[in-house]
Design a protein that fits this description.
The complex is a heterodimer of chains A (176) and B (343).
Chain A: H1 17-21, H2 23-37, E1 61-63, H3 78-82, E2 88-94, E3 107-115, H4 124-128, E4 134-136, E5 151-152, H5 154-157, H6 168-172
Antiparallel strand pairs in A: 1-4, 2-3, 3-5
Chain B: H1 3-36, H2 52-62, H3 73-89, E1 100-102, E2 105-107, H4 117-138, H5 142-172, H6 179-184, H7 192-195, H8 197-210, H9 222-225, H10 235-260, H11 269-275, H12 278-304, H13 312-341
Antiparallel strand pairs in B: 1-2
Helix pairs in contact in B: 1-2, 1-10, 1-12, 2-10, 3-4, 3-10, 4-5, 5-8, 5-13, 8-10, 8-13, 10-12
């Protein structure tokens, strides 16, 4: 009984003498491998050359400053709430007089920690942030020896004033 | 310079060259494997990774030496020693080039021009199987033993076809077994491979089997026998086994070049002899031989990354039911042609 019309008759013809010699097949195999000898290599010599990341790549976070060098983060906690891995914790503090050049809003994050082992790099913190403060960059989280070293504080996350992190690629991907 | 002194220097040079070529074969193997798989290969140690063999050698020496308590200590040490010894011994009868002229005397670039040259090679190569067999047996490990048994049965069965294919060459050089005479008979482009292509293919396949290279690397077969006969070996003893394989490959390439591709002969060698000093031509001839050897070493590696391993019964059927009859028929046909049509 035929259930479908896709059945095929399988034939296994007897090999001819030339096929049983195997030598032509071996020669054609050798020809294929020798072609690969001259092909362009797929390897990148990693520490010297790095592969370019896709514009949507989500790597290590950065806490941005504005043009005047003030921290954008106002410690609203939306990123921590949105984080599905619960990797973000923060302590808020009130900006004192004379600190206007350090923090943009009246409230700022005194402590801001991301546990890089918990983080799943989904980018929801970036989407939740109303102040353009947190972004995922194309930098990689380096390997460490202990778990504790993966809890990144503000000393690592906040960008340096004289060494800004370029996040223009991430920004353009969201403007429609 | 006395002949003995010259031979002693020649032996040391050949010894060093064999070891260097073997060391750089490991590097070349990795590089060629990488290139054939669209990778780059080792390039960290020195320029282009050229110091990689040195690093590997140092690593081998510094590794912990483990001799299993259940093993036979004496045989365990004898195994790799015999393997290495036989691998190095074969190079004695190979004519490396035309004779050198020093102080008006001619010195042959060959350690020993014995009249049973090729027979000596076959004999020493079959001794090499003892290194594998003893090593596998002394390890007292089932994988090592299986690997050793596989290796020895494979090498014994392929030696027959190899010897048979050589006989047809010997028929063409008036029955002389001396490698020097065989090479001399192939002056210019008068190479044996053009007269004996069948013998060449049989010999080449057997050479692959004798050196335990893919597609005949059943003795090692990493995926099934965890390394085969050298499973229990570590440190430099393992190094000797791995190294011996590459020396075997170098020597087999040299033998193939001598038997079928005219050894150090190249077209126009006689003409060059009339316009250049004798020693220059000798050095060129050595270079030509090494060019041929390096091509075959490359060919060994090229095949390794092309053809998958044989199944054991296929290997035995190929050896006994295909290569043996072909080699015998080839000998008969060669003999008949030489008898009825002269040369």
């Amino acid at each position: 009984m035929q259930l479908t019309n896709r059945s095929k008759v399988v034939t296994k013809p007897e090999m001819t003498f030339v096929e049983r010699l195997y030598l032509p097949a071996i020669v054609s195999g050798l020809a294929i491998t020798i072609k690969h000898l001259f092909k362009k290599k797929a390897t990148l010599k990693y520490p010297e050359v790095t592969r370019e990341f896709a514009p949507v790549y989500r790597g290590m976070h950065v806490l941005k400053r504005d043009e005047a060098g003030r921290e954008n983060c106002t410690a609203c906690g939306l990123c921590a709430v949105s984080c599905p891995a619960e990797a973000i914790t923060m302590d808020a503090a009130e900006r004192q007089k004379g600190e206007e050049h350090l923090y943009r809003e009246e409230k700022y994050a005194a402590k801001y920690e991301i546990n890089m082992l918990r983080c799943i790099y989904c980018g929801l913190c970036e989407e939740a942030c109303p102040k353009d403060a947190i972004y995922l960059t194309d930098r990689l989280v380096p390997s460490e020896f202990t778990r504790g070293e993966f809890v990144y504080g503000k000393d690592i996350l906040v960008e340096k004033i004289d060494d800004r992190v370029d996040i223009s690629k991430r920004k353009t991907s969201y403007t429609i | 310079m006395s002949v003995v002194l010259f031979k002693a220097i020649l032996i040391i040079i050949i010894f060093l060259i064999s070891l260097t070529v073997a060391a750089y074969s490991t590097y070349a193997e990795r590089k060629i494997a990488a290139f054939l798989q669209d990778r780059i290969g080792p390039d960290r140690a020195g320029p282009f990774g050229l110091l990689q063999p040195v690093a590997d050698g140092v690593k081998m020496f510094l590794k912990e030496e483990i001799i299993p308590t259940v093993s036979d200590k004496l045989l365990f040490i004898a195994g790799p020693s015999i393997f290495m010894l036989t691998a190095l011994m074969t190079s004695a009868v190979i004519p490396w080039g035309k004779p050198l002229e020093i102080g008006g005397k001619l010195y042959a670039l060959q350690v020993a021009d014995i009249n049973i040259g090729i027979l000596y090679v076959l004999g020493v190569v079959s001794l090499g199987v003892y290194g594998i067999m003893i090593g596998g047996w002394a390890s007292n490990n089932k994988y090592a033993l299986l690997g050793a048994i596989r290796a020895s049965s494979q090498m014994i069965s392929y030696e027959l076809a190899m010897g048979m294919s050589v006989i047809s060459i010997l028929l063409m050089t008036d029955g002389s077994l001396s490698l020097n005479a065989i090479v001399d008979s192939q002056k210019g482009m008068n190479w044996n491979v053009f007269y004996q292509p069948v013998a060449f293919i049989v010999f080449l396949v057997c050479a692959f089997a004798e050196t335990n290279r893919t597609p005949f690397d059943l003795a090692e077969s990493e995926s099934e026998l965890i390394g085969g006969f050298h499973t229990e070996y570590s440190s430099m003893k393992l190094g000797l086994y791995l190294f011996g394989e590459y020396i075997n490959m170098f020597i087999s390439s040299a033998i193939i070049a001598c038997l079928f591709f005219g050894g150090y002969n190249f077209p126009g060698i006689d003409y060059l002899g009339t316009i250049l000093p004798r020693n220059i031509v000798s050095i060129i001839s050595v270079g030509v031989l090494f060019g041929k050897i390096f091509f075959f070493i490359f060919f060994f590696m090229w095949v390794r990354w092309t053809i998958p391993r044989f199944r054991y019964d296929q290997l035995m059927r190929l050896g006994w039911q295909v290569l043996m009859p072909i080699a015998i028929i080839n000998v008969l046909v060669t003999g008949a042609i030489l008898t009825f049509f002269g040369n």
